[in-house]
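Bug #77: duplicate submission created two jobs. Keeping one. Sequence:
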Amino acid sequence: MRQRNLSSFVRTNTPFANIVKSVNETVASSTTVQDDNELFVNLRANKLYNFSLILFCGGIAGDIKYTFEDITNATRDVFTNSDEDATATLNFGVEKDIPLISSSDLINMKGSVQMGSTKGTLQFQWAQRISSATETTVFLGSMLTVWESK
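Kept job's structure:
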């Protein structure tokens, strides 16, 4: 029996970066997106990157909205996958509103960034969707993993 070489189907490269959030981060009474303190990575020019963000969050009073900071001279696509919105496409710099359904939700995002002639930063940004004195939290353990495509 002939065996098929599956090496082209299996990701064998190690991540370019793997950032795991080490502390909880909270926002209260603010709907203005801000840079996450830990979920970012510097990218090199003229490279293609794929990434995954596993976001553990909570705060049903204020919900959450998020984006990735727009990177100058880069083309990009971001896909969100969550129980609330499984097929939406999010462009960098455009905020996405997600109503949270519990005090501990999971939002799973994946996407790609084609860098132009200058380097840049893949920066996750977020805020409350609805201003509330009750905090919205991005929990420790949230993880941004980035692979550089060959």
